[in-house]
Design goal:
This protein is an alpha+beta fold. 27% of the residues lie in helices and 21% in strands. The chain contains 15 helices and 22 strands. It has helices spanning 24-36, 60-81, 88-101, 118-132, 143-153, 166-179, 186-197, 217-233, 241-255, 281-288, 296-311, 360-363, 370-373, 445-450, 615-618, and strands at residues 200-202, 205-206, 376-380, 385-390, 395-400, 434-436, 456-459, 472-477, 480-487, 496-505, 508-517, 522-526, 530-532, 537-541, 544-548, 554-561, 569-579, 582-591, 598-609, 622-627, 630-635, 640-642. It has an eight-stranded antiparallel sheet. Strands 7, 12, 13, 17 and 18 form a five-stranded antiparallel sheet that branches. α2 packs antiparallel against α3 and α2 packs parallel to α4. The protein is globular.
């Protein structure tokens, strides 16, 4: 796949970068194209960039500020990384925007910072960008503009933010105020940094606020901003905190390369995925803070591979813009707070430009990703995830037994008849059993109502499926992870427990379910949704179903135990305009006939592969024996796993 010609990139260098061909010059050219493409959408004084696309719930002025602030972060990486040796119009545009945006009499004036306002998010990007470009922008602003910028940022002092990663926006912004001699609140800074300690769960992982909120915000916010704060505070002003943050990021980065496929794609999980290559922020920060465990050649291979992955798929688009989506515009994967400039948080993915051109991450030869060297199995007990990469096709899969993006369970939450058990939302970007670098969940409202892909659901007689909401982790070690959740059906006050254990073996995931169900309900399980520009091929038998895209990506689910075939048995559900990977999607699934209720055991084999898949043969790949509460899986190589 070739990069779109509108990017006007330099020739590839297959000596220095044998796997991606990309060098620092490619990064600079991409940044320049993205910044130049914004100028037609600037307001006259350059204080806002009003981009085309769906507006956010914050309104057009806030969205325009977002366009300025987030692109300013990209400009800052470009300006500081070049030591100021860039087209002068770039620094002039952002200096002019600062003057106009902070002028209360201007038609382009930015909204004041108020408690929990969207402006707080954007102010943090402006503060960081001002710090990084201080010799070229801040120091050259006239005193009146500096005073207005300080006055605007001072809306943070004593203010209230949302109790999650937003606490860190206040931290970095007030530290910038301190760095320029302006009034600030030390207690705001210390309080924010103290608060994130409550969310650190070990092994380099935070949760983003209370609950089990694990996603890319851990890297592009929870690890990033504390170390950006340390850059502003300086070694004499961090109170020893920076060393702790560096140690945590180092531990996080030990596992992080396992989230990326051989084609550079990150695992498609969590919210705000329109930020795309912002997922590279912790990788670059590890190098910037001199705390990365990754070899320089691996750092660049990972980063360049991801940026090139999106460039090859039309990101930025033919206008040079980032759209609300993954590759193309795809609004179902966005949130109400997402405006047309929101994707420019992707600017965080360019932090590597702050490293000098002679730094080892730019001069060392590329090294392979973990999935390019061998099959990988990575257990992450903190978020409750298994990562599973297969070398032959370069796909990485995430098996989810821990992240649900819901509030913490109430005190005393346990299996039983509590009608509130498992309450909360079932966002498709958190609630699924599996995610990958090659697929996205079905996320359009009509597909979410069906709730088929990567779910084990009870189906009421009227066809309503249960939802996987709050996830209760049980274990995560080696190649095995387990959790349980509670299912509820309309008109039934009971909460029915569904326990699932995932076992990885070779390229497969075997799911063992213990299911409590009411009389008359059936049980359904879906595999990965595959999608593309044309309708995937579909095939099924009495105990298996398969869907395959035109480029050979295959999703299959095979019944191994406890599935009776029933009226529907196995089939493939098709949909349109419901998947970020393409307009036509398909999900293979198994479904039992309505039963007498009570407890049952179901075992299935789930496959996602670019290799040929033969479901009938796979039925013989695993022997299942159920003995009371124990399920013993015996594989063809003689290995055994007891669940």
């Amino acid at each position: 796949m070739s990069v779109a010609p509108h990017l006007q990139l330099p020739p590839t260098d297959r000596v220095l970068s044998s796997r991606t061909g990309w060098t620092r010059a490619h990064w600079e050219a991409t940044a320049d194209r993205m910044l130049d493409a914004l100028t037609p959408y600037a307001t006259p004084g350059f204080a806002q960039y009003r981009l085309p696309g769906r507006g956010s719930w914050s309104g057009v002025v806030s969205d325009g500020l977002e366009g300025f602030a987030r692109s300013f972060l990209l400009a800052a990486c470009r300006i500081a990384g070049a030591g100021g040796a860039v087209d002068p119009s770039l620094t002039e545009r952002y200096a002019a925007g600062l003057a106009a945006g902070t002028d209360p009499g201007s038609d382009e004036a930015w909204p004041r910072l108020t408690d929990c306002s969207q402006q707080m998010v954007e102010a943090a990007s402006i503060a960081v960008a001002l710090h990084e470009t201080r010799p070229w922008i801040w120091d050259r602003l006239d005193a009146g503009v500096q005073e207005r910028v300080v006055d605007w940022l001072s809306g943070f002092v004593g203010g209230r933010t949302w109790d999650n990663n937003w606490r860190l926006f206040q931290v970095v912004s007030e530290q910038f105020l301190a760095s320029v001699g302006a009034p600030y609140s030390r207690s705001d800074i210390e309080g924010g940094l103290d608060r994130i300690e409550d969310w650190y769960v070990g092994d380099g992982w935070y949760t983003d606020g209370d609950g089990r909120n694990f996603d890319y915000y851990i890297g592009w916010a929870m690890h990033l901003y504390p170390l950006l704060w340390a850059r502003i505070a300086g070694p004499d002003g961090d109170g020893g905190r920076a060393s702790v943050y560096r140690e945590r990021l180092s531990r996080f980065l030990e596992d992080y390369p396992h989230f990326f496929g051989a084609d550079g794609a990150p695992v498609h999980q969590g919210r705000s995925l329109a930020y795309r290559f912002a997922s590279l922020a912790p990788v670059w920060m590890g190098a910037l803070a001199d705390c990365t465990p990754l070899a320089p050649g691996l750092t660049r291979r990972l980063a360049s591979g991801t940026l090139r992955h999106f460039a090859e798929r039309g990101v930025p688009d033919e206008r040079g813009l980032l759209t609300l989506g993954w590759y193309d515009t795809f609004l179902p994967s966005t949130q109400p707070y997402s405006g047309p400039a929101s994707p420019y948080w992707a600017s965080k993915g360019f932090l590597g430009l702050l490293l000098p051109a002679d730094h080892a991450v730019w001069t060392a030869r590329e090294l392979p990703l973990p999935v390019e060297e061998s099959d990988t199995y990575t257990a992450l007990p903190a978020p409750g995830w298994l990562l599973h990469g297969t070398r032959h096709d370069g796909i990485v899969r995430l098996v989810n037994h821990g992240s649900d993006h819901n509030p913490p369970a109430p005190e005393g939450d346990s299996p039983g008849a509590d009608p509130d058990l498992g309450a909360g939302e079932d966002d498709p970007h958190y609630a699924k059993l599996g995610y990958s670098t090659a697929t996205a969940p079905e996320s359009a409202p009509h597909a979410m109502a069906r709730n088929i892909d990567n779910q084990l659901s009870l189906i009421a007689p009227d066809g309503t499926p249960s939802r996987r909401r709050r996830i209760h982790p049980v274990s995560c070690e080696g190649r095995v992870a387990a959790s349980w959740s509670a299912a509820r059906l309309p008109g039934d006050e009971r909460a029915y427990r569904i326990g699932t254990t995932s076992v990885l073996h070779g390229p497969w995931e075997i799911r063992v379910h213990r299911v409590d169900a009411p009389e008359g309900a059936s049980v359904r399980e879906g595999g990965h949704a595959v999608a593309g520009p044309i309708s995937p091929f579909a095939s099924s038998g009495p105990d298996w179903a398969l869907a395959r895209t035109a480029d050979g990506l295959t999703s299959a689910v095979v019944a191994l135990y406890g599935w009776d075939g029933g009226a529907d048995g196995a089939a493939v559900a098709r949909d349109v305009e419901s998947n970020a990977y393409g307009p036509h999607s398909a999900v293979p699934y198994l479904r039992s006939a309505p039963g007498p209720g009570g407890r049952s055991v179901r075992v299935s084999l789930v496959v996602l592969s670019r290799d040929s898949v033969h479901p009938e043969a796979l039925r013989t790949a695993v022997r299942v024996r159920v003995d009371g509460d124990a399920v013993v899986l015996t594989f063809l190589d003689g290995s055994r796993v007891e669940v």
